[in-house]
Structures are given as C-alpha cells and as structure tokens.
C-alpha cells in the first residue's frame, strides 16, 4: 500500500492538480512542458553531471560544512534560477496559474527522473522495493516546496524585484541543507515540511496583499 501512495503523490498528484488548473483557466499545456524542462535541463543535464564528474576525478564537493552549504545553494540557484528564466524570457503570459503549474511540473520531473525511475527500474529487474510512508510524506512537501520556490521566481519577474528570486534560492538552499545539518530523519523531514509550508504561506500572503492584484488574471481561483 505504501508504494501505491508514494506513486500517487509523486506522479499522479502533480498531473491531477495541473489538469485542475487547466480546467479553470485558459492556460496552455506548454507551460507544463516548460516547467518540466526547468528541472531537467539545469539539474539532470548540467548540475548533476558536473557533480558526478567531480566525484569521478576524486574531488569531494561535500566533505566540509561550507561545501555542503554551497552544494545545497547550487541546487536552489539552478532550479529557481531556471524558473526565473522561464517566467522572464519563455512564457508569453505570467499569471498565478502559470506559476503554480511551473512548480507542479518542476516537482513532477524530479519525482519521475530522480526518485521514481530508479525504483521502477529496480522493480522491473525483480528486486523487492520497500517504501516507507515517510518517503510519501517527503514527496508531498517537496511538491509544496517546488510550487513555493517557483512562485518566488514568478513574483520576482512580475514585480521586477530580484529580492524575491534571492529569497527563493536561499529557501531552496536551506531546505536542501537540512540533510547535512540534521541527522535524525524524522526531525529532518519535519523541518523540511515546516520550511515548505512556511514558504508557501509567505509567498501566497505576499501575492494576496499585492495592491496590483488585477495583474493576476486568475488569482481569485486560488486565493
């Protein structure tokens, strides 16, 4: 049962939520593809291969605390930075719905390629896989985190204020750095959930208090 719940949260939930948003707006499905690519290109094609290469030649990038923090921040930089580029240069129309979909598809790409694909391949090879409910818990709040960080990038573009981009990168880096700071998995996952929820509440509050709320064509659907 736990593995079914895991795949529902990791793969079905982000697609279902995106379909719901599409059903309530006039957004184009290409936004989901763009969001998928904002994770795939900077992480899968660029950052991770660089890290693997450094490891292969004997260079450790996480053996000291400063390096660990830089490693966590680099993930925030490439992911939230890619979201910013998508909102700034790729998407023709920036609405809250687009911001949500970018975050959902970003999380879907991570769940599919980084998390689920190795599990699926292992199962196909006949290996027994046991997935705890904690893994499903983590994927749920990872999705919330991706949405939150994407919305920070969205708001940075909407208001031409890089402080929101920086905040998104720092919050992403903080959430990724927990694995180095906290050794107890229950405390670590609880802290991650708190950061994810706090980030989401913060950016939604900022957007909802925006005096120029009319800029967001579909804001009333979500706030």
From TrEMBL:
Pfam families: YhfC (PF10086). It comes from Sarcina ventriculi (Clostridium ventriculi). This is Predicted membrane protein. It comes from the Bacteria. The lineage of its organism: Bacteria, Bacillati, Bacillota, Clostridia, Eubacteriales. The chain crosses the membrane at residues 6-22, 29-54, 69-91, 140-157, 164-185, 191-208. Keywords: Membrane, Transmembrane, Transmembrane helix. The keyword Transmembrane helix applies.
